[in-house]
Amino acid sequence: MSDTNQGTLPVIRQTIELNAPIQKVWEAVASSEGIATWFMPNDFQPALGNEFVLETPFGKQPCKVTEFDPPNKLVFTWGRTWIITFALQEMEAGKTEFTLLHDGWEAGKIPESGMDSAEVRATMAHGWEAAVLPRLAEYVQK
Q1: Torsion of the alpha carbons at 4, 63, 124 and 130, rounded to the nearest 10
Q2: What does the pLDDT average to over 92-114?
């Protein structure tokens, strides 16, 4: 798996170890209720090809499930170019390794916002690391 996309900006890759069994983590990352708790409100349905909406701070964003492999991997498109991967690996008793990949970073401006892709990528990388993934950990480790 490459950490770059078509020679543009690097993929955001973040991995955390969760003190929770893989099935509990899967339910948190592959259900509408779970995703809403630690990420964003949505109308996600757990099925390959499902089109859903993430209700972001910047408005509703269209998404589509492109890979669905319970309880190991969920991949979906987000907006025009982004690809989000949630990969889970069962570890020793009761622990799960969770890897997030945020791909699809084209150089230049993001058409929907007019913002520079590199700046948005840096902001998103920080947000995943500092806010979103810690909320996931808090949610599944209760």
Answers
A1: -120
A2: 89
DSSP state of 41: -
d(C-alpha 117, C-alpha 109), whole Å: 5
Q: What per-residue confidence (pLDDT) applies to 4? A: 41
Query: Which residue, 28, 12, 11, is CA-closest to 20?
Result: 28
pLDDT at site 6: 46
Q: Per CATH, is 12-141 categorized as 3.30.930.10?
A: no
Q: What is the pLDDT of residue 13?
A: 98
Contact 27, 34 (CB under 8 A): yes
Please tell me the pTM assigned to this model.
Answer: 0.91
CA-to-CA distance for 43 and 36, rounded, in angstroms?
Answer: 9
Quick one: average pLDDT of 76-93? 96
Per-residue confidence (pLDDT) for residue 58, from 0 to 100: 84
Q: What are the boundaries of each domain within the chain?
A: 12-141
Contacts of 16 (CB under 8 A, 6+ apart): 97, 98, 133, 136, 137
